[in-house]
Amino acid sequence: MSDAAQPTAAEVRAAAEAVKTALDRHLAAVERRSGEDDPAVYEAFNELAAAAEEYDELLYDRYDEVTPFEIPGTDDALPPYQGPEEANALSVLLRRDYTVVEPQRLIAQAQRVADLEAGGTGGAGSADTVHSALGVLFGEFEPDEISSRHKEFGLEEGDSTLWVTAVDTPAEPGEWLDAPFDQADPHRVVCRFDVSVVFDDELDDDGLEGLDTDVDMDIDPDVPVPLDDTDDTDDTVDTEDTDDVGGASGARQAGR
Hints:
Layout: H1 9-31, H2 39-63, E1 89-100, H3 103-117, H4 130-140, H5 143-148, E2 155-167, E3 189-195, E4 240-241, E5 251-255
Parallel strand pairs: 1-4
Antiparallel strand pairs: 1-2, 2-3, 3-5
């Protein structure tokens, strides 16, 4: 950074004073909070985090020094809840990510479903490409079954998230089908569940003592997928599914 772009000593001092003010406001909000989910506390927390981050950046730019504090990222916390006090209607938003790691296996398993449904009322269609195979499998199996059997279908799980959001009134049939995710408001999240390998670092290694971590959970790729339940093609899931979706190890829950 050039000298001309560096903050002045006065700017650094002002940022430090802003942190002190934000600390006082946060403590005052905590002392007079009306409940566990008081929005004033959330607001004061975010202001304190922003002030501390600003001070840390200016301190580094001016003096090449850092603070000893690690401010929790506000992205890890739910924003202040602004939905109804008592949620009488819910909308469930689900996203699971997958990687197609065995395309031929995916196609072969989907073709078995298509062959089983040939001539019936299932209408599974052909499965000679990855694109068509995905359509067959996700059209035949519910998202939870895809998640639990993803290795059988040649898929590898990525991150996943599930949001339970409050809505004012139940939606009318077909009301949101044209834009199913436009109403994904984080301020109305009642609870949220995230799954990702990044959370593995947060696990306490002491809690893993005594567990057999060498158990082979891999599925034999030569064993065909049982298709006993493929006739139940009319079942639907009352969720809003945001992507081709699945979780990885390590989980985090945020709730109200």
